Amino acid sequence: MMGFSPISLGVRFLLELSALAAFGYWGWKVSPGGLRWLAVLALPLLTAILWTVFATPGDPSRNGDTVVATPGALRFLLELAILFGAAWALYNAGAKTPATVLLVVLVVYHLTALDRVAWLFRH
């Protein structure tokens, strides 16, 4: 199962960290003056909270625990919104090359993790 392999999970973790950084960067670039610091802190924090709280129970790619039990299809949509949203945020902030690289890595990751996607849709 490629989507649950240590390499795939490591790549996914790096994508999650990249998303947090991308939303912080976007917040800095698009927020005026003093709000920049708030955006740099609040956007990644909100993203991390959403990522952590809404999970599918028993997900073998996580610890299996969750705060709010979320159907797998809804969790998949949340993951897509956050990860691909991060690529959009980079692009919107003017970081077009990093956005493109992130987009390509996201597509390749999801194509190699189709077994995890299928697992989510079954749960």
TrEMBL record:
InterPro entries given in the database record: DUF2568 (IPR021214)
Q: Report if keyword Cell membrane is assigned.
A: no
**Which organism's genome codes for this protein?**
Kitasatospora kazusensis
Q: Which UniProt keywords apply?
A: Membrane, Transmembrane, Transmembrane helix
Task: Kindly indicate whether the keyword Coiled coil belongs to this entry.
Answer: no
Q: Which segments cross the bilayer? A: 9-28, 34-55, 76-93, 99-121
Question: Which superkingdom does the taxonomy of this entry point to?
Answer: Bacteria
Q: Can you name this protein?
A: DUF2568 domain-containing protein
The region annotated as signal peptide is: none
